[in-house]
Amino acid sequence: MRISASTAAPGLNPCDVDLFSPEFYATGDPHPVWAVMRASAPLHRQELPDGRSFLSITRYHDACRVLGDAADFTSERGSLLHQLGQGDAAAGQMLVSTDPPRHSELRRPLNRPMSAKSAAALEDTARRAVATVLAPAMDGEVWEVAGLADHLPVALAGALLGLPERDWPDLARWTAMAAAPDEPSWRIRSGSQTLAIAHHSLFDYFARQLRRRRDSAADDLISHLMTMSAGAERLSDDEVIYNCYSLLLGANATTPHAVAGTILALIEHPDQWRLAPDAVGTLVEEGLRWTSPASSFLRHAVTDVELSGGVVRRGEAVAVWIGAANRDERVFPEPYRFDITRANNRHIAFGFGPHYCLGASVARMTLRVFFDELIRRFDTIELAGPVEHLASAFIAGYIRLPVRTRTKGKRRDR
Questions:
Q1: Which residues pair with residue 381 across a beta bridge?
Q2: CA distance 46 to 16
Q3: Which residues, in sequence order, are bridge partners of residue 53?
Q4: Closest CA to 38 of 68, 61, 10, 20
């Protein structure tokens, strides 16, 4: 999706915009719509032609209320907008679609292998992956950020899960299809068929990985999932497969698009590029706020709940728009200013509450390493062609972002 630097949208009516449509995010700009909704329609209802409906949450504190309270808002009827009215076959088995107390039982044994300490142990792997991504840029030719950045999360997730490097390209493609099945670049006949193919490919792949580990002593996250106890029992095969899928999808959904979107923001704000060498840590956080790559999460009200603008009735679906909450003027001064020195950056790009992203430490480390290497190697970075955005209501991402960089120490051609 396009990211506005201004909220000016005279006469804009949110009822005229289809926030459910993946195509809107490929060609449109939701930020002016979200700004109007934050100001005057913080509990906006959209009804689809088939009778399904959902309420949109755009204010920061409302978003935290919905995401933070699993007792009042369940994830077990689907956590993604395209699941509206369909439910979730993995409910109660996959971490992201499970409520406490079962959610806590599943998550607790995974906290240590996904901790900041474990992420730090992967830094050398991250630097090798970053070197691979940046290699095409070293000769001064145009390089495609959006495509190459896909290698980053799958390399880290592959190392954590113990997956062979030869499989990473397939895994990146399948997870992209699962995250954005309506994207024309990889859609197969229809979005629903694309999603079915991606799910079958990934579930079958992880089932084969489980069979290979039955008699092995591998020290990786799949083996950990196979042997850990959640509550009083070990996970079933289905639970292991679902959570392998979820971990891989979560990595692919956030990191590459945060990379691409932050690079584009640095190109559009050259003053911030000049500050970047001394502010990599806060650059990562502002990049996450600015891009908000996981664009929306779905929840259903368990009981009547009062939020800004009215009451969510029991059973109603709510879509929490992360990019809108991360530009709430009540929380972020000058929210439409890209400022890599921003202090007290309380963004919710990784979610909020019990479902806060399990892989946040790994993602942050990967982004820090990437921008550290980018800034160390290059003097300048500039756009080298048109930008193409992902068709998805779930991922705020990029299909094409061609750039050209100038390596430090080299002069421009005269």
A1: 405
A2: 10
A3: 47
A4: 61
Residue 407 CB coordination number (10 Å):
13
pLDDT digits (tens, 9 = 90+) for 73-99: 999 999 999 999 999 999 999 999 999
Residue 211 to residues 23, 199, 204, 207, 319, Cα–Cα distance (Å)? 39, 18, 11, 6, 38
Residue that is written with structure tokens 């972020």 in the block = 332
For the record, the structure tokens of 400 come out as 């094409």
Per-residue pLDDT, 3: 85
What is the spatial distance between Cα 211 and Cα 396, in angstroms, rounded to a whole number? 35
Report the interhelical angle of 280-291 vs 237-268 (nearest 10°). Answer: 100
ω before 10 within 30° of 0 (cis)? no
- Is the per-residue pLDDT at 216 higher than 80? no
CA 318, 315, 392, 171 torsion-angle sign: positive
Q: In this structure, are strands 378-383 and 317-321 parallel, antiparallel, or unpaired? A: unpaired
Q: Which pair of tokens denotes residue 265?
A: 């923001």
Question: What is the residue-averaged pLDDT of the chain?
Answer: 93
Predicted confidence (pLDDT) at residue 62 exceeds the cutoff of 50: yes
Is the pTM higher than 0.90? The answer reads: yes
Cβ neighbours for 92, distance < 8 A, ≥ 6 positions apart:
76, 98, 102
Q: Assess whether pLDDT exceeds 70 at residue 223.
A: yes
Beta strands 378-383 and 388-389 are unpaired
- What's the topology of domain 14-407? Cytochrome p450 (1.10.630)
Residue 172 tokens read as: 């990146």
So where are the chain's domains?
Answer: 14-407
In the chain, % of residues over pLDDT 90: 86
Residue with token string 């956030």: 254
Report the C-alpha gap between 322 and 370 in whole angstroms: 23
**281-292 pLDDT per residue, tens:** 999 999 999 999
Classify strands 143-144 and 53-57 as parallel, antiparallel or unpaired. Answer: unpaired
Who contacts 165 (Cβ-Cβ below 8 Å, separation ≥6)? Answer: 155, 158
Q: What residue type is 388 in one-letter code?
A: E
